[in-house]
Design a protein that fits this description.
11 helices, binds guanosine-5'-diphosphate, binds magnesium ion, 14 strands, binds zinc ion, flat
């Protein structure tokens, strides 16, 4: 291959990756790209100070597990002919669905593993029944979305299994008041499916939710075969860690007019979605955020037993839902 000149570079969109291979879509064509090891380092440390501790630590142990290119990335690549290419650059991301890689003494310096780039919507799916809703887990998903600055949609599915009940109505009310959009769906009777189609339209959506809550069925109801495709992809890529090395986005929509992409992420627990840090967890609960710093002990308050806690006061006065407050305390201890 001769040395490429500038005009040989193209941009494209990574919709699938397996170990060492990145499938890039560009103007209706699919190009199978690679990145060289040398390039991998350049992409991982574009601005890092070579003498810094974090650079040193990560370069020793993290290089195989960290990947500078994620599905959803817009990239610049050089075509090498016969449908192959070499990625040279990742364009700036407008958002990301990520987890932090590595724990231990240097966890503070750990790099973040982006699982899906340029995510528009995190869809937190829970079932109205079978399995019974775990609101605490939903709060965990939503806090994760907040920590990544991702818009979240609350989807309560299998609605055909329950009559309108107080618990559900109250829950819907709570999340509506906080400002989360929500949709109530059923793959069985079609409730909310058209609404859901509109909500996914033209977006890159990541679905999260426990196994069995109805994600595959929901996707199949939205578009025949969609859930099955997403499922098959996940079956071949495996669970947990492997999901970060192999992942595919499945196109959704009727092609010409609109198109979105859906990613199902199995084994969310392993993703270590929520990342505790120095940050006060109350920052990740939009209804509590305005009160952070207003407690008697200011930013030192853990909102637990301290006197003069503004957040506990708001709970006692009915402005903040007690269950959400408990979720926040629980995440704080994680
Ligand atoms: N009654 C009812 N059952 C559903 C609905 N959606 C899914 N299920 C059932 O729930 C089980 C798990 O669904 P599945 O889509 O595989 O869940 P996933 O693990 O989240 O992908 C299956 O037995 C489905 O038939 C629904 O809207 N209503
Ligand atoms: Mg499934
Ligand atoms: Zn407080």
């Amino acid at each position: 291959m001769s040395k490429p000149n500038v005009s040989d570079y193209q941009t494209g969109f990574v919709y699938k990756k397996t170990i060492g291979h990145y499938f890039v879509q560009t103007e209706g064509q699919q190009v199978q790209c690679e990145i060289s090891n040398r390039l991998r380092k350049v992409l991982l440390y574009p601005t890092a100070d070579p003498s810094s501790i974090s650079h040193h630590v990560v370069s020793v142990k993290g290089i195989q597990t960290l990947d500078p290119v994620a599905v959803g990335d817009e990239v610049i690549f050089t075509p090498a002919g016969d449908g192959k290419g070499l990625i040279s650059e990742v364009l700036p991301r407008r958002s990301r669905f990520a987890r932090r890689e590595a724990t231990g003494p240097f966890a503070r310096h750990a790099l973040e593993q982006v699982i899906v780039a340029n995510v528009d919507l995190l869809v937190a799916v829970i079932a109205a029944a079978q399995p019974a809703p775990t609101w605490n887990l939903l709060d965990r998903y939503l806090a994760s979305a907040e920590s990544l600055n991702l818009p979240a949609l609350v989807c309560i599915t299998k609605s055909d299994l329950v009559r309108e009940n107080d618990e559900l109505i109250e829950a819907v009310e709570i999340y509506k008041r906080i400002g989360y959009p929500q949709v109530i769906t059923s793959a069985n009777d079609g409730k909310g499916i058209e609404e859901m189609r509109h909500m996914l339209d033209g977006k890159i959506s990541v679905l999260i939710g426990k196994s069995g809550v109805g994600k595959t069925s929901l996707l199949n109801a939205i578009q025949p075969g969609l859930g099955k495709r997403v499922q098959t992809v996940n079956d071949t890529t495996g669970r947990g860690r492997h999901t970060t090395t192999s992942l595919e986005m499945v196109p959704f929509g009727d092609g010409a007019n609109h198109q979105g992409w859906v990613v199902d992420t199995p084994g969310m627990r392993e993703f270590g979605l929520y990342q505790p840090g120095e940050l006060d967890t109350a920052n990740l609960f939009p209804e509590m955020l305005p009160l952070v710093g207003k407690c008697r002990f200011g930013l030192d308050c853990s909102h637990n037993t301290e006197p003069g806690c503004a957040i506990r006061k708001a709970v006692n006065e009915g402005q903040i839902n007690p269950r959400r407050y408990q979720s926040m305390l629980k995440l704080q201890k994680d």
